[in-house]
Amino acid sequence: MTSRTAGLYDLRGLKCPLPVLKTRRRLKGMPSGTELTIETTDPLAGIDIPHFCNQEGHELVRSEKTETGHRFLIRKG
Q1: What stretch or stretches form a coiled coil here (predicted)?
Q2: Which of 13, 53, 54, 64 has the most CB atoms lying inside 10 A of its own CB?
Q3: What pLDDT, on the 0 to 100 scale, is given for residue 5?
Q4: Which domains does the chain have, with CATH numbers?
Q5: What is the rounded distance in angstroms from the CA atom of residue 73 to the CA atom of residue 11?
Q6: Residue-wise pLDDT tens digits, 17-42
Q7: Which residues are catalytic, by number?
């Protein structure tokens, strides 16, 4: 299976719960297997995004700390 990439979704500057809500909305319109990279500055995103992926059936492919926040690679389930 070849993964499709939806690119980078810049959520920097947004506070909880907006990163999760906007990520959910963006993923909703994408086909299963598509990968989406998001960047956040909200410190709670390090907890919220992995929990969201687990609850919604998406795969958290990669999670990394950046200088200003977090970067996540999510594969839509």
Answers
A1: none
A2: 53
A3: 87
A4: 5-75 (3.30.110.40)
A5: 13
A6: 999 999 999 999 999 999 999 999 99
A7: 16
